[in-house]
Design brief:
Length: about 350
């Protein structure tokens, strides 16, 4: 029985990684972004004025750093950061090119696109669709044009497309387990590469591989600038890779610590009692409507709406327009979204 199941943990060929190794390297990079995002969120909540811009532009900052990191490893090791961390490399799926010579330019560009840019575009698309769904919940549907109908059809079909993609990935992994395909992921198949083990010869080649041509007086100004730029990019990528290599186990610990299974324990250990509401000292001649003034328009509130991130109450129209444009609380600066708006219903209304 054990002999029949041995192919699940070993490869049909010596250079073919097992399914557990390739899935482990996949989970490594998927754990890095949530951990960094949580750290940036803590900084933004502690000091919105200084670190709020990091939270609002986190996706763009992360994709730039990810492109630099992945480009460095693809150029130097023919592998992504996580693949190199587990001792793997990328080789052409149908190429006779020697593995130590690295990837072809087309394979390099495809790998970079699918590793860094495609996840960024998917994240932005999902956030955009989530905002549109939230806006639809607060809007009245008027007669729709053909473009609006096509958009709503896409909005309804997108979850099924995601399920189809996940099903294709799972089916691809099953084929990889039974040796019917050379790649475990459709992304590798689209890039035209497969994963293999990093050999001792590859490591020696990397140690002897020069970082780039040296500067010489005969080079033009453009070549010198390109050389300096590549050196700076390489230095940034090396710093990122070193930091991630040192902190990868800590990031995986954060992933477990903030997992859904552990949230109840975290809340019981870190939750604090709710502070009392502030005391507003009013003049004797102030009217009772003073406490019902919207902090934004300075008028008596209409259609009271609370912002869950700060607890302040505004007019619905005022706070909806402000949060949609600035993504933060106008009084505290806490990062906020439209889903944090809570309609207040009073018995008088």
């Amino acid at each position: 029985m054990a002999e029949r199941g041995a192919h699940l943990t070993t490869a049909a060929a010596e250079d073919r990684p097992s399914i557990f190794e390739v899935l482990a390297q996949d989970s490594l990079m998927s754990a890095v972004k949530p951990a960094l995002q949580h750290a940036v969120q803590i900084l933004a909540e502690s000091n919105p004025g200084r670190y709020g811009i990091l939270w609002r532009n986190f996706d763009e900052i992360y994709v730039i750093l990810d492109v630099l990191l992945q480009h460095h490893f693809l150029s130097r090791t023919s592998a992504s950061f996580s693949e190199n961390f587990y001792g793997l490399k990328r080789v052409g799926a149908d190429s006779t090119r020697p593995a130590h010579q690295g990837l072809r330019r087309r394979q390099h560009l495809r790998s970079l696109l699918l590793l860094a840019l495609l996840p960024y575009l998917r994240t932005k698309l999902e956030k955009f669709l989530a905002r549109q769904r939230d806006e639809d919940d607060f809007s009245i549907r008027l007669p729709q044009s053909l473009t609006q109908k096509m958009y709503r059809a896409f909005l309804a079909a997108y979850p099924y497309a995601c399920v189809a993609w996940d099903g294709w990935t799972f089916f691809h992994q099953l084929l990889y387990i039974f040796g019917k395909t050379r790649t475990h992921s459709p992304l590798l198949w689209l890039a035209g590469v497969k994963l293999s083990y990093l050999t001792a010869h590859d490591i020696r080649s990397l140690d002897l591989k020069p970082a780039g041509p040296a500067l010489s007086p005969s080079q033009s100004i453009g070549e010198k600038l390109q050389r300096v730029f590549s050196t700076v990019v390489g230095g940034v990528a090396v710093s990122l890779s070193t930091s991630l290599s040192l902190g990868v186990f800590f990031l995986q610990f954060l992933e477990w610590w903030y997992s859904s299974e552990n949230q109840s324990t975290i809340k019981s250990l870190t939750s604090l009692p709710t502070p009392p509401p502030p005391l507003h000292l009013e003049d004797q001649d102030s009217s009772p409507t003073h406490t019902k003034v919207c902090p934004l328009c300075k008028k008596v509130r209409t259609n009271d709406t609370a912002l869950a991130t700060s607890g302040y109450v505004f007019c619905y129209r005022c706070i909806y327009v402000y949060v949609k444009a600035n993504h933060r609380c106008p009084l505290t600066g806490y990062p906020s979204e439209l889903q944090h708006l809570i309609k207040i219903y009073s018995p008088e209304g």
